[in-house]
Amino acid sequence: MLLDEAVDAYVGMLAVLKAHAAYVPLDAGFPSDRLSYIVSDASVRMVLSLSRLSERTRDLAAGAKPLYLDRVRSRVAEQSPERPDALAVGEPPDDLCYVIYTSGSTGRPKGVAVGHPAVCNFVRVASEVYGITCDDRVYQGMTIAFDFSVEEIWVPWMAGATVVPRPEGPSLLGAELDAFLRERRVSALCCVPTLLATLDENASELRFLLVSGEPCPQDLVTRWHRPGRRFLNVYGPTEATVTATWSPLAPTVR
């Protein structure tokens, strides 16, 4: 999937999985050689994209057929809204859910294949541990090409919460992100500590915070800790399905 609009990406992921296929998330900002390598290495046969990104799909590996969603929307709208039956989609060939590529220790992207049992287990446990509820509005700011986005998307969906994608364009931080979170009434944020450090803790209405991806300084914990706010630090390599460890953060915890 090579998409630069969040809603298309969400719909694409759900559609691929309902068809008993597996998805390989790509980022339109990736260099062309990285995109080509991933598509070739993962033996991708179809690339869901948009026609305005056709230049990015043109040089992908042979055999990877692009399907531009904006060109088939009318055909999609004509389809039945009912869930496809087993005969229409066929039996799943395996338990594969997605393949996400990391930087790799050699500098060459390394594909990590994650199965449905692992993802389902993570989403079920994380939704319970994090305490996300159907009343929450969760900011989704990470590219789907990184597994951190699984935390931002699938866990809220499991809880029946609302996912609030970042606007198109450069990533938000500082006062711009503060304003966006307030305007959209976001109550839960998952991010790296570096991003959290740019925000104003006194202007925030967040009730849930999760930091990951890098060490969280103690002074940042002190700044953001509030009674009634759940503040977690999590860690996990992609191979362990997003998150392997978690711990609540408080000024007295080091």
Automatic annotation (TrEMBL):
GO BP term, pick one = amino acid activation for nonribosomal peptide biosynthetic process
Q: GO cellular component annotations, sorted alphabetically?
A: cytoplasm
Q: Which Pfam families match?
A: AMP-binding (PF00501)
Q: Identify the residues that the record assigns to the AMP-dependent synthetase/ligase domain, covering every copy.
A: 3-246
Gene3D superfamilies listed in its UniProt record? 3.40.50.980
Among the GO molecular function terms of this UniProt record, one is:
phosphopantetheine binding
Q: Which InterPro entries match?
A: AMP-binding (IPR020459), AMP-binding_CS (IPR020845), AMP-dep_synth/lig_dom (IPR000873)
- Protein name stated in the entry: AMP-dependent synthetase/ligase domain-containing protein
Q: Which organism is it from?
A: Streptomyces violaceusniger
